[in-house]
Amino acid sequence: MKRTLSRTLSRTLVGLLAAAGLVGASVNAQAATATSNFNVTINLAAKCELTSTPQDLVLNYTAFQTTAATATTSFGVRCTEGLQYTLSMGAAAAYGLAADSTTGLNYGIEILNGTTPVASKTTPTSTAITPATGGATTTYNITATIPAGQAGVCSTPGGACNGSAVQKTLTIEY
Predict the structure, then answer these.
(1) How far from the centroid of its chain's Cα atoms is residue 102's Cα?
(2) Where residue 98 sits, what CATH number does that domain have?
(3) Which of 16, 54, 78, 100 is the least buried, fewest Cβ under 10 Å from its Cβ?
(4) Domain that holds residue 87
(5) Per-residue pLDDT reduced to its tens digit, 136-158
(6) Does residue 13 or residue 168 have the better pLDDT?
(7) Which residues have CB under 8 Å from 164's CB, separation 6+?
(8) What's the domain count of the chain?
(9) Which pLDDT score is estimated for 23?
């Protein structure tokens, strides 16, 4: 009988506690909410940059050779999408077609996109270029050419005369 009474009391107590929990839960379900709006502002500083820089060009030429001597280097440019830019190496004189002061050889330099000239002696600054979509890099070439058939100037019999290095500056304006 003690066991039966104990079981009955335990079941009754569990039932009362469960009922109390349900009553308490229904009171908590009436919680309120509050909201607030806010703004997010994003500021972008647009720019262009060189992703790779041009290397030095060295032109090897033998007096009176029948083909032009060329040397090419490349560089990469990427810009914020929609930001137009121009490329140049300065005024028309910066593109050569004048004699090197040491060797007396005429040469020319141009900036190319593939095989299309972008900047040269006749167009020292490129027209406005629209950047690649998504800020992707565009690769350009700088090609220096010594036209064929030139004698040059060198007083070393059977030897080589080295021209002086002439510094050029590549400019990206945006």
Answers:
(1) 37
(2) 2.60.40
(3) 16
(4) 48-153+166-173
(5) 999 999 999 999 999 999 888 87
(6) 168
(7) 100, 101, 102
(8) 1
(9) 47
